[in-house]
Sequence to fold (69 residues):
Amino acid sequence: MLAVAALLGGLMIFLRKEVAYPLVLVWAFVGIWVKQAETPLVAWSALIGAVLLGVLALGRWVAGAVRKK
Fold:
């Protein structure tokens, strides 16, 4: 389920040039990471998904800001 959510977030970044939706997923993934610390596979998957989506969203935001100038 985390992979599907991350895939949807990535699609929103690339196809719709959306930044807010993936940031909501980053927030949710960080919450999952904190709550599921006892389950390493789930916790690490959530953390990796949060970092990847965060970096992609930041990149989209910067690219959009540069194009507007």
In short: The two ends are 38 Å apart (CA to CA).
